[in-house]
Structures are given as structure tokens and as C-alpha cells.
Write a structure and sequence with these properties.
Radius of gyration: 24 Å
Shape: elongated
Strand content: under 5%
Structural class: mainly alpha
Distance between the termini: 20 Å
Number of helices: 4
Number of strands: 0
Length: 104
Amino acid sequence: MLTRLSDLTVLADKLDPGVKPNWTFFPFMGFLRNVGGGTITATLVVSVIVLVIAIGLLVIGKSSGSNKLSDKSASVLLWVIGGAALIGSASGLIAWGANLDLGF
């Protein structure tokens, strides 16, 4: 019976299989990294294009007094900025999550 925390630690050390992520095991991992990097780059380029269009529509909507156009373009502007932030940080978020020590 486990009565102390140190007993639990010793038990955990015995049960740990020592499995760690191996980023080079499969020969196609380099290709997948390139696909991932290319996808991130393409989506960021599209985000910049959509951002420029949304800014242009926002300016047109504000200058013409069209509240609907300026509201929609402001919404697109915020969504694109948020999406680009998540896309740009996706690799860091995954690396952070893969290295989390959850205790098991």
C-alpha cells in the first residue's frame, strides 16, 4: 500500500516507459515540415491580402457613410488579425503543448 508521496514517485519512475517525441523517425518528416511551413506561409499571405481589402472597404464605408459596409469590414478586420495571430503562433503552441509535463 502507498503511504507516502515518495512511494508514489518511486512507482511512477518504474512505470515510465520513456517514450518521447522523435521528430526524425519517419523519412517523410522533412516533407511534412515543408508542407506545414508552406501552408502557414500561404495562409499568412492570404491573410495580408484580405486585411488590405478589409481596410480599404472600411475606409470606403466610413467615408461614404455606409454603416453596414464599415461594420462588416471591421468584423472581417478583427477576425483576420485574430486568425493570423493564431496561424503565426501555431508551431509554438504545438511545441509548448507537446512539451507540457502533465504528471503522467
